[in-house]
Amino acid sequence: MATAPDATRELTHDSAFLRAVRGEPVDHTPVWYMRQAGRSLPEYLRVREGVGMLESCMTPDLATEITLQPVRRYAVDAAIFFSDIVLPLKAVGVDLDIVPGVGPVVASPVRTLADVAAIADLTPGHVPFTTEAITMLVAELGPTPLIGFAGAPFTVASYLVEGGPSKDHALTKAMMYGAPEVWDALLRKIAGISAAYLRVQVEAGASAIQLFDSWAGALTPGDYERSVMPHSAAVLAAVGDLGVPRIHFGVGTASLLGLLAEAGADVVGVDWRTPLSTAIAQVGDRAVQGNLDPTLVFAPPEVMTARAAEIIDAGRAAKGHVFNLGHGVLPATDPARLERLTDFVHTY
Ligand code: CP3
Fold first, then answer.
1. CATH code for the domain defined by 4-347
2. Does ligand 1 come within 6 angstroms of the Cβ of 103?
3. I need a labelling partner for 264 at 20 to 30 A (CA). Which of 41, 51, 89, 192 fits?
4. What's the pLDDT tens digit per position in 290-326?
């Protein structure tokens, strides 16, 4: 008998998103948006009233509803699971919270080998709410693929070491340069947690995964390759046997795109600062995802669509192209604009 994920695999197989990722012809460029769920949607603000961010991630009905909201509104070609890159840490017992308007805040920052050793490895039993939410979601989504995700070791390490959001990642990089044995232990620990969290999502029915290394752009190529890439590669390799496409994304990664690809990506996510044609030349025989400047939704509509057209045209040179913004939807975004952008991408 077919398991639920097998049935989902079959239903979503010929979606524009998965076809584009495999480099097969599509009748329209598929599109979804990072942070498509969230504060730009009034229906999100309504269901989140009085419920904390992490609590909403751990409540299957709520996570399911929030994930579906942008799919209903925009008819995007993929859903992204509503969760957060620090949720798996919370699930294994790390004392942290997501503070509104600030981001993840960690009560006791990680500084020593003993701090690393105190973090438990993740098992499916830590995240039963994730399995439950994704099981419900794929039943609702039918032919629309669900993207699961996790944080890459460097980006997650930055929150654990700094204790919160950081612009320069100075303490994190000080550990990388000055305490390589602590650094390696920490990144190995996070890699194991992220890989286990991705497996849970795919085994419950996610059709693709995205590894977010949002802050990798803070690194030189040499440091990335030496101290970070092996751990991100370990995460991507650990889910390779599951047979779902792996998207690898970071911000400010113009000098790292080749390495992000080599780390084991099937699709490289590109931020808006790098022309898509430049990115395509660096990633080899892989699909690309991106990369409209998220602020273009505030420009006159014809400027927004003209820039989107340039990106779709540039994407035709890639093995496959999934349209997206170059980073997440900004909270002030007017949903009517994303609706218009989605329709434009679908019909261009
Ligand atoms: O729609 C989606 O994209 C799925 C949901 C999603 C969230 N976080 C929900 C969320 C995803 C994919 C993430 C990933 C994430 N979380 C990243 C990588 C992606 C990126 O943006 O680079 C990072 C760096 C985090 C850490 C984090 N969590 C930050 C920086 C913030 C924002 C802080 C703020 O309030 O401005 C969060 C909180 C968060 N995660 C929100 C959402 C919808 C906002 C909280 C709220 O609505 O109350």
1. 3.20.20.210
2. yes
3. 89
4. 999 999 999 999 999 999 999 999 999 999 999 999 9
